[in-house]
């Protein structure tokens, strides 16, 4: 159970000194050391095809194993890492860990592609495409093993550079997923111009959409648009049988979320794969009886 737990909802540790609750600001030195010294680790969250439950991939999600604070989640440090200009170092580290893990899974016969998060900031670097390709190839993997999930976390300084990098990644046969669809600055115009393979609807729209007319309409419209553009549509944040039933009916082809699996340490993935077919039946059954 310890292995499977996502501790985010455990009682929060006071951010800093007793009394004054300040936003926890980590220093540049602290973060750069953490990246250098191997304190960043990955958890993996399965994605499945809704029609038959077939596992379709895994997303790797970074966590900081902080020497005093325990596991720190990316919402507390990724944008700081961007502010400090350390995002390339973090991305390289994540790719290294992810590709090593994927290679070891391949040896065990687990063939799922891996989704890696990229902040758009990274894509403004003129040498980024070569670097990403090198990192993947150095690990003995190919473009078809990887899906890049891109999120627009801030207004982009150089839209052209970013769009060029995305097109070039596509030419190199990498799949690109537009992450957090509906909440970023990603516009419909970019969807039209770019060869995205996948659209991921942000979990803030997905969870509870069955009981919220506006969110429900957004999920349905996004799924329809993805389908007519020939894109895979992943619903993230599927937490309950009700969510599962709703996004399936709305036309999402794939799903990710706690109802399927929490983000898991790599060691827990093979037992999830064994258990999932049974859980899938149970989830479908619960969705039919409750929806
Ligand atoms: P994201 O890429 O949209 O990832 C999905 C987030 O939703 C993850 O949070 C995941 O744990 C959480 N999640 C998944 N299923 C459910 C669910 O059913 N319910 C709820 N409430 N949450 C769910 P996490 O791991 O905290 O990551 C947050 C964000 O941090 C990610 O959002 C991504 O934008 C960023 N991130 C994570 N890893 C990396 C990384 O290696 N590099 C970069 N640049 N960003 C990363
Ligand atoms: Mg993502
Ligand atoms: Mg997302
Ligand atoms: Mg999200």
Automatic annotation (TrEMBL):
Domain of life: Bacteria
Annotated GO MF terms: cyclic-guanylate-specific phosphodiesterase activity
Single GO BP term: phosphorelay signal transduction system
Record key words, sorted: Phosphoprotein
Domain EAL: from-to ranges: 24-277
Name of the featured protein: EAL domain, c-di-GMP-specific phosphodiesterase class I (Or its enzymatically inactive variant)
Range of the intact protein held here: 122 to 412 of 412
